[in-house]
C-alpha cells in the first residue's frame, strides 16, 4: 500500500498517491515506449480487475498482489503500469464515475429533472460499488470521467439562474444527501449479514418491550402514530429528494422574480 493511502476510521483516501503520476495516468500524458515487445497487460485491464476485486471483497481485500492474482500475473508486472495502490484507487474512482453517453439518462426535462436523475444514478452507483462509501473523497483527483460528468450536469442546470458557486453547491448538496442514504442502506445490509437477523426479525425482537413502553403513557405522540409509520412502503429517499428539489425551486423562482447582482449574491450568501 502506498504510504498515506489508509485514512482514519478504516477508510481509504483519494489523492494519497503520487498526484503528478496519477494525473499522467488519468489523462494519458505520460511518455510511452516507442519500441520493445508488446505489453501483455494494459492499464485498463488492471483498473477493471481492481474494481472487480473491490466490488467482490471490499477495499480490505484490495491489494496489488490480489489484483495481480485476478489477472493471472506476477505482482511486479503491475508496477510497470501503476506505481501503487494509492494511484490505482484514484484510477478506479474515475473509472466507476464514467458518465452515461445517453443524454436521456439525465432526465428529459429541465434542471429539476437533471438533479433528480443525478441523485438516482448516484445512489445506483453506490449500490453497485459499496466500497465507494469507504473512500474519503474530500480532495479528489479530477480525471476525465469526473470532469465529463460535471460538465454534463452543469450544462443541464445552468438555466437555474444561480451563481456558479451556487450551482456547484446544489450538486454537492444532492451528493451529500445521496451519500447519507446510501450509507444507511449499506449499514443495514452489513448488520443483517453480521448478525444473521433480517431487518424484520430485528425489529420483531423488540416488539414486546416497545409495546409496554407505548402503553406506559410516557410517549403519547409516538403511541399515537399510525401503524404504517415505520413500514417499508414509504420511500424516505424519494421524499427527502423531492423536498430538497422543492427548496431549490423556491430559490430559482425568487431569483427569477428579483435577480440580484452577482456581487450582492456573493456578499449575502444567497
UniProtKB/TrEMBL annotation:
Ranges annotated as DNA-binding: 63-82
Keyword annotations: DNA-binding, Transcription, Transcription regulation
Highest taxon of the lineage: Bacteria
Protein name stated in the entry: TetR/AcrR family transcriptional regulator
Keyword presence, Transcription: yes
Pfam families: TetR_C_1, TetR_N
InterPro entries: Homeodomain-like_sf, HTH-type_TetR-like_transc_reg, HTH_TetR, Repressor_TetR_C, Tet_transcr_reg_TetR-rel_C_sf
Domain HTH tetR-type stretches: 40-100
PROSITE patterns per the UniProt record, alphabetical: HTH_TETR_2
Species per Swiss-Prot/TrEMBL record: Streptomyces dubilierae
